[in-house]
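Kindly review these tokens for lecture notes.

. . .
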Amino acid sequence: MTSPAGRLALAGAAVAVFAAVTASTASAATLTVGTPCARYVPERAGEQWIPVAGSGFTPNTDPRFTAVDLTYTNGDLGAYTPLAADGSFLANVFMPTEFISSSSGRKKTYTLTATDRNTPGLTASAQVTLVRAGVTTKPARVRRNVRRKVRWSVFGAPTGARIFAHWTFKGRKRATRRMGRARGACGIARKRMPFVAARPRTGIWKVYFTRGRRYSRKRALFRVDVSVYQTFASGARRAGVR
């Protein structure tokens, strides 16, 4: 017959074993993001488009019900999903709502956490990096000398692509400049180039950015409109990105 002290010791051992099993189960869960840098354009704001995969969560859950919540550290819900019989899932998640605002910048990394509803404490986290695809200039406006060099930056181009800029006016190409390769997982290329790389004319210039030297409006990655106008007071030309 086991003494009261022995029963207490056995109970303590059982608790310790249960805790060890729980910790082992929790540590087995993994979350993987399917892209090293997710390209965002406004058309995707209301879509679940970032692929993620999870494994090591509670197996044999009812596939008709939500088993895992995917949330960002700022509290935004990315998605929720049921689990397969082996405790895995594949899902697409929303981006954090704050990244819809341009004030979040061109590139930002968030932590996404998957939480199992069936097993308390069973979570897994991964980093999600987003880039706002498009083109910027710094400064965004120039005075007098509209051909002065500014810093052109392309974000979200295919990684490794050779990027070229083409200045067009009234449908005709007027100049081409090479920017260099889009580098890193987020496909970023930067170079100092003229604001308008041709003899300036008053009106709207359309600047197309292509993969490779060949100019094609249909195959362009991005387009930026540059407005060149003349002030009445001084007669000097000014230009700005629209």
